[in-house]
Design a protein that fits this description.
The chain has helices spanning 26-30, 33-47, 69-81, 90-93, 111-120, 138-152, 164-176, 181-188, 192-201; strands spanning 5-7, 16-23, 51-59, 84-87, 127-129. Helix 7 (164-176) packs antiparallel against helix 8 (181-188) and helix 8 crosses helix 9 (192-201). Mean pLDDT is 82; it is low at 137-149 and 151-160. The protein is of the alpha/beta class. The protein has a 5-stranded parallel β-sheet with strand order 1-5-4-2-3, sandwiched between helices. It has 2 domains: 5-136, Rossmann fold; 152-201, no CATH class. The chain contains 9 helices and 5 strands.
């Protein structure tokens, strides 16, 4: 399950992705906004050398307290292809419930809203944006660390939440079968439980 939204520039060439583009209103579709967004997305994916497995470009609202059938379709495609999801920016993936394009257009997602997005994306390798994702609420990072410490069975142990780029390196060591799990954990500064989980599932 993703535990953060990363910048697409952090991903390696050859990474499998599903593209996701959306606009909120039918008028934006008729005026070409969706088509332009899709082109920006495709160009960004191509320039970074990602392997595009599918693309979902549709009209739907971005709040998670409203139906998101097209986001769910992208999530299912990413699970099927063992890929991540890439959008142009964070607002394409999620709009905060407090967002209002007139009175509160600067609203950012709450920690709870982001955690709901991550839970919905279970089975997706990562969520990424072409534009650097906006700063996420500090509560998200804090809760992720606490969950990891709880999984490690202590208050000060290493968190079991493993960033995507670190997980790739851990998997490489696991697949090489040259190092014991505890040495892999020490090498990459992650918990032993996280290494065991990656070995069982192939990814977090």
């Amino acid at each position: 399950m993703p535990t953060s939204i990363i910048a697409a520039d952090e991903l390696d060439r050859g990474t499998r992705v599903v593209g996701f583009a959306r606009v909120s209103e039918a008028g934006q579709v008729s005026k070409g906004s969706l088509r332009r967004q899709q082109q920006i997305l495709l160009t960004g994916i191509r320039e970074r050398g990602f392997l595009l497995r599918n693309i979902v470009a549709e009209q739907e609202r971005g709040k998670l307290n409203e139906p998101r059938p097209h986001l769910l379709r992208a999530i299912e495609a990413a699970r099927r292809h063992r890929a991540g999801i890439v959008a142009v920016n964070l607002s394409r993936l999620i709009r905060p419930s407090a967002f209002d394009k007139v009175e509160n257009w600067t609203a950012v997602p709450t920690a709870e809203e982001l955690e709901l997005l991550f839970a919905l994306s279970d089975g997706v390798l990562f969520l990424a944006t072409l534009e650097p994702p906006e700063s996420l609420p500090s509560e998200v990072h804090s809760r992720a660390i606490k969950r990891g410490q709880a999984a490690a069975g202590n208050r000060g142990g290493r968190p079991s939440v493993v960033p995507y780029n670190v997980a790739n390196k851990v998997l490489e060591d696991i697949n090489s079968k040259e190092l014991p799990y505890r040495e892999i954990a020490n090498r990459h500064k992650v918990s032993l439980s996280a290494v065991k989980r990656l070995a069982q599932k192939g990814f977090h």
